[in-house]
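Predict the 3D structure for this chain.
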Amino acid sequence: IESFEASLPSEAPAQVQRILEVDYNRLFVGPGPLLAPPYESYYESADEQSGKRGRLRTQAERTVAAKYREFGFTMPDTFIELPDHVAIELEFLSILSTKEAQAWRNEDNEEARAFQQEMTVFAKEHVGKWFGACARLIESSASREFSSQSAAAQFYAPVAAIVVAALGTLHTE
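Done. Predicted structure below.
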């Protein structure tokens, strides 16, 4: 990430945003086949051995949406992504973490441990289960489809590696 930042010292913020947007769209949006789909449904329905590409809007999406409702988490109407997008799954973990911290502050150890357990289970059964595969696609796409100086190689791939490492800490009990 530092090398990406160092390569842009004189760039205006709007230009940096454009650089990030272009690579973001190539990786996660399109046009064309997504290089690294950021959706749980895709990875849950794909079959690497047969080469079958995954699909969106599967049961995985409905399962995470139900979990969000269980905890009173609603997505803003203006947000256009599907419920199983990595950003939303990570946001949900953040909300659970905030609720856990509040419970510890209120000295409600039982509730704090319950939120801690929910975070561990959600990470293990959802985002922690599939995001490693997404991160590998980001890394391989960054090295295959982009220059070594690209935002994909110097920003998105390292950020994905950080997310994988952070999710790994939630798998311990």
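The chain has a mean pLDDT of 91.
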